[in-house]
Amino acid sequence: MKSAYAVLLLTVALTAAAHGQTLRTAENAAAADKAVDAGGSIDVTWAPSPDELEAEVKVLGYEVWRARRPAGDYKKLADVEAGKESYNFTDEEAENGVEYFYKVRVRGEEMSTDTAPVGPAKATREWFHPNRLNMLIAAVLLSAFILYYISQARAGKVLFIRRIAGLEAVQEAVGRATEMGKPVLFVPGIADIDDIQTIAAVTILGRVATMVAEYDASLLVPCSRSLVMSTAQEVVKEAYLEAGRPDAYRRENISYLTDDQFGYVAGVDGIMVREKPAANFYLGTFYAESLILAETGHSIGAIQIAGTAMPSQLPFFIAACDYTLIGEELFAASAYLSREPRLLGSLVGQDWGKVVILISIILGVVTAFLAQFGVEIFGRSIALEQLFVVK
Amino acid sequence: MDGLTLFGTWIAAFLTLCILSFLYKDNPFYKFAEYLFIGVSAGFWIAYNFHNLLVPNLIDPLFGADGAFPKLVREGQLDIRLLTVIAGLLGITMLFRFFPKVAWVSRYGIAFSVGLGAGLMFIVYLQANCIYQIWGTVQLSPIVITESATGWHFDWGASVANTLLIIGVVSALVYFYFSKEHKGLLGGTARLGIWFLMVSFGAAFGYTVMARISLLIGRMEFLIDDWIKETLIALGLL
Amino acid sequence: MRREIPMIVAFVAGVIIILEFFVPTLRNVAGQLQKWYLVVVAFAILVGAFNLLRMNYMKVRGRRVDWPYSIVLIVGLFAMTIVGIGWGIGQGTVFDWLFNYLMFPMSSTMFALLAFFVASAAYRAFRARTVDATLLLVAAVIVMLGQVPIGSIWVPSWWPDSLVFLTPDWLKDRIMNIFNTAGQRAILIGASLGVVSTALRILLGIERSYLGEE
Amino acid sequence: MKFVRWLADIDRRIIFVVIAVAVVVPLLFPLGMRVKVTPQTQTIYDEVENLPGGSNVLVSFDYDPAAAPEVHPMALAFLHHCFQKKHRVIIMALWPQGAQMAVSAMAEINRDFDLEYGRDYVNLGYKPGGAIVIKSLGNSFAEIFPKDMAGRSTATLPLMEDVSNLYDVDLVMDLSAGVPGITEWVIIANALFQTRTAAGCTAVSAPQFFPYLQTGQLIGLLGGLKGAAEYETVTAYAGKASPRMDSQSVAHVVIIVFILFANISYFILRRKREEGSGGPTARPPTSA
Prior knowledge:
The complex is a heterotetramer.
Chain A: H1 2-19, E1 27-33, E2 42-47, H2 50-54, E3 59-67, E4 75-81, E5 87-91, E6 99-108, E7 112-114, E8 118-122, H3 133-154, H4 165-180, E9 184-187, H5 196-215, E10 219-223, H6 226-242, E11 254-256, H7 261-275, E12 279-283, H8 289-299, E13 303-308, H9 314-320, E14 323-326, H10 328-338, H11 341-371, H12 380-388
Parallel strand pairs in A: 9-10, 9-12, 10-11, 12-13, 13-14
Antiparallel strand pairs in A: 1-2, 2-5, 3-4, 3-6, 6-7, 6-8
Helix pairs in contact in A: 3-11, 4-5, 5-6, 5-10, 7-8, 10-11
Chain B: H1 3-20, H2 28-63, H3 68-75, H4 84-95, H5 107-138, E1 145-148, E2 151-154, H6 156-175, H7 184-234
Antiparallel strand pairs in B: 1-2
Helix pairs in contact in B: 1-2, 1-7, 2-4, 4-5, 6-7
Chain C: H1 4-22, H2 27-61, H3 67-87, H4 94-125, H5 131-147, H6 149-153, H7 168-203
């Protein structure tokens, strides 16, 4: 095997000599374990051969070769296209704990040149992401606030939650629909059930459905995802049961239309103009369809209550709906409507998260101001970056 | 334009007009397009999901030429990909919804999806929307002073901009405070926060108008250029 | 049992995803779970499609209002599904043709309805009734003017540079960069707190209405 | 008073009709509204204008149909200007669908000029590789493009006899919708071979290239539909960007006028009500 390598070198040398010119090797080649991963990967990096930049000798590309010993039997792993300022290839087929050596070959038209072997490099798996300590602190701190207040509420502490206008109106809207003998339309957004806004919307649907069942109105829930439809059916059935009206539950009223964004909107618009609901709820994740729905809903004279955490769609709901739950209010809604102490406790926990955020903003701004005069509090720039930049 | 394309263009133009007719009021043409649209698009996503979700994530790893089952039969080798069977089982629990009596079995599939989503969003929102947005704010100084050869300068453009931005973020965040009555200082700050939110909503609305008009321009150019003009050309009238 | 085990499933799935962010070793496990989710979605769409089909079939059979349209829907659904699964969805297939000449024009026209709706919504909502509505209105009008050349045409060429802050172009940039950024940022931060709290409630089984009755 | 009440509550279908007219009429009968030409557009125009007739201009079509509404009008206006100045144009593409966009652009241009393929312009077609292609053009066109798009040997094309590598190109115009695109042309063609480089791109990606303008690595930059309309204005070419921009302007003005109507009528009616005439109460203010 050693001889094969020698032959290779010789060929390279001979071809180069025959043309009276050489192809310079790639520069700064290095191999190292891929940082923070599940193991099995080694990063090989290098800078272009000086010849690539000078345009005199043509560089076609690079090759990465691997062996277990520096002078061992090298096997080609990959071709890498030329034309970059720096190169990075990840060998994803390394065994954990095994030492590897790498070579980078510059491929020219008539010749090629190898770097000296680089290594050894070993792939290892990591158990903690060192740059994410800040996220861990934030997650733990926030969770602790929320869980603490949930336990407080559970222990019987009475918690105050301010009025949220959009949610006060839910009852009024359902009542109006009942009086007019018209249905209530609930649109749970166009995202699937893995989106937390959809989950929030479906839990609100549970509260709305209980009211609808108590008032003996009817409820229409067209869905754009099968999983959402299935979940909504479970939730509404449960709500009717809770209200003591299981007989009034109509499974077919919670239907699936299509996964397609605008196909779904076309269908919901059709339902609106034909069934003429008196109350429309748009809660969950919305994209461009927000205004199409809200304008059509307005044209049939329905009371409209919307809620989303999509900043891009909030302006349209604000403009076209009677009430709009903005961002965090959407997530507060199910707790607010249920009035269940444990859920309300989580809202108080969120508020403490806000207090911490406000304090850190104010402290950060003060240090940013002082830093202009060279006053560095705790080596400000570094400390702050470590706190807030997640890699 | 060849015959088939022109034929397709006529269909497309007809459907475009059907949808536009909804602006006047609900009518049989819109109803036709609506039902067709729902049917065709539902079918589109079924076929799309089959090829892009089911084949690469379930069928290929298990039953493909190099899949886990053929390997098991051929070489008697257990492959990690056999775990994909669990995915298949979770998927099949969804089919229990066809039978109301055992529909509850689908809760496994639903619970898995909800749990996965909750976990993912927990991290994504905390990182990208919380910590990163705070980072963007704490780098700002409300009073910007620059140093140059001639001494210190007060950059009042940047100072006003930064100050407004910081006040905006803080006051709007206060608006979301739930566990205290919005009265006094808290109420005043929250009120200011709503004003900031309103300006931002108005701005975002105004900013989007251009993109929306562009969509209509696109449809109108389709009707004028691709449909009417091309038809006239095909008829030899242009 | 009908609720407890699914709750455990939800908890385990969610916690693995959260831990994966901090524990690189779990990366492959989490990646696998996300693929499983896609399989569940693919199966679930059958449930939806069946529901859609059944509703429309009942409508046709019962000769209920608008039943002929339901036939159109059923034909469209079958045509697209069969053509797509049977002959592929690549370029140049029948599926592709149906997409280009049926689905695409309807989709983009539906989207284009927004051009009309932004106008009607603006006309109705942007009235200076309250301070809130006035701010909404003024910001929207300034940005709209700043967006198109006509906004800058009204500024005559002799306009002094010292008064540049009165032009729509200048104001639009400031409103977008300062006010819009501030508002959106607060919404994002607030929403993330709500998300974290909702996710916790779900994973810990405090919020379990999505699982239906006992 | 009746009119004021009508103004306060215009049927939305009237608004719809007005919007439709506002969009369609400028498309059919361009108003020729003057767009204010920004310096980064003017510099491209000046560059083309000041090159001696018969200069070699390379136009790289690095976009696909999705970006065509914004970028294609730039291609037409720019090519039109080049042929007007009797420059020779070499067309190539780093995006697969770019070559086809070029074919459709030249079909349009050929209606206005009596051009001879191979002498006045060539279309070399698409070549994958992005940065490597540009790098290799520094050496030789013939090596990278032995054949043109239609399969003719490039050696037989008279234009290519005078253009052996990027050093023979007087100006590069990159029409880009992403990567590979402007960045590659700037960091390779401009940096390594000192080729004069200008570009056009979609509105969303334009801001990221402003630094290149400041350093002079880019002569000029056309940003989005507005940039295209500016080039049409400065070259007096009747293209599609200007009518589209006209539609935009008219539609924006129409919406603002409706907002004005709404507010004027609102204030008149409110004053009436304050004087005691009653009238319908306004809907409750939109909740925040």
